Amino acid sequence: NSTGGDAARPITVIRGDGIGPDIVDATLRVLDRVEAGLDYRFHDVGPAALEAGDELIPDATLDSIAETGLVLKGPVTTPSGKGYTSVNVALRKRFDLYANVRPVVSLPGVVSRYENLDIITVRENTEGMYSGEGQTVSEDGSRAEALSVITRDESERILRFAFDLARERGRRKVTLAHKANIMKSTSGLFLEVGREIAKEYPDLEHDERIVDACAMRLVMNPEDFDVIVTTNLFGDILSDLCAGLVGGLGVAPGANIGDRCAMFEAVHGSAPDIAGRNIANPTSVILAAALMLDHVGDSERAGRIRTAIRAVIAEHDRVTPDLGGEGTTDSFTDAVIERL
Ligand code: NAD
């Protein structure tokens, strides 16, 4: 299960559950085809780990991630209810994956409201409304509280990350989405730091938008946006909105990036409604793998993979039912591989 020799780069592969194993296996076939030089270390988390008689997040998985620093991950089911925390959130926290990067690009052949969009959302992944601090419900259940925490350090880190990313990728503009008019302390601090950081990047255009107006403008004039940087909750919502602009979650990849570790995955979930039927669209995980190759400096292979995916979808060749085709996960993957 390795595409390279002794010099192969080790990566941790988490196949996930539901449609996860099918679409991750499809992705590994694509990586093998381009001889990406990766040495796959397979590990489980979540339901797959529990089924194997292990912990929710086994130590062996954590050790592997710490060692490889690079993870390709399929979706993992988070059953609703108490006592079962999200594995995804736990991994982000454990490895300090502070930046959630979600690029969306229009793909000809995918039914969507717009063409030629290319927007990257950079979402702060560790604090804000999702910090999980101070969550209480009064005894009679009539009042609930949670703390939203924003720090200067984390704000600086994510804002610098976004401006650096924009510069490295030759983008023109960074839009900061906030709600400082109402959430004066938390969002106010984020905005203040953003203005300071923006001054360090005079080569990039800097733009500020109040998040609600930003959402409206994204729907009405999405071509005005290039890179968006924002706090956790707003980023969660805006990045799904952006995925919707190009045709939905089925074609959107995501990366969770920290200083020592990075995890690449589909944006969608484990799709229990279609699991085991060989009809899941593997595009998101394949594009996530392309992001991973970009991350390790192999943009040449990443580009080839994207070109192949675009061609398959544009030509409607053996595509899966979500794209209006009659193909399967396997036939779609065959079509991608033939073009590589
Ligand atoms: P989902 O994204 O799994 O499914 C939503 C809809 O989109 C379903 O109808 C599904 O069939 C369809 N869909 C999703 N991916 C598809 C694909 N690749 N090809 C074709 N159709 C696809 O969302 P959900 O049902 O809300 O969540 C299911 C489970 O996944 C939940 O337990 C949730 O917690 C988990 N989840 C995990 C992650 C992750 O691991 N990063 C992300 C989101 C949700």
TrEMBL record:
<comment type="similarity">
    <text>Belongs to the isocitrate and isopropylmalate dehydrogenases family.</text>
</comment>
<dbReference type="InterPro" id="IPR019818">
    <property type="entry name" value="IsoCit/isopropylmalate_DH_CS"/>
</dbReference>
<keyword id="KW-0560">Oxidoreductase</keyword>
<feature type="domain" description="Isopropylmalate dehydrogenase-like">
    <location>
        <begin position="10"/>
        <end position="336"/>
    </location>
</feature>
<dbReference type="GO" id="GO:0004449">
    <property type="term" value="F:isocitrate dehydrogenase (NAD+) activity"/>
</dbReference>
<dbReference type="Pfam" id="PF00180">
    <property type="entry name" value="Iso_dh"/>
</dbReference>
<protein>
    <submittedName>
        <fullName>Isocitrate dehydrogenase</fullName>
        <ecNumber>1.1.1.41</ecNumber>
    </submittedName>
</protein>
<dbReference type="InterPro" id="IPR024084">
    <property type="entry name" value="IsoPropMal-DH-like_dom"/>
</dbReference>
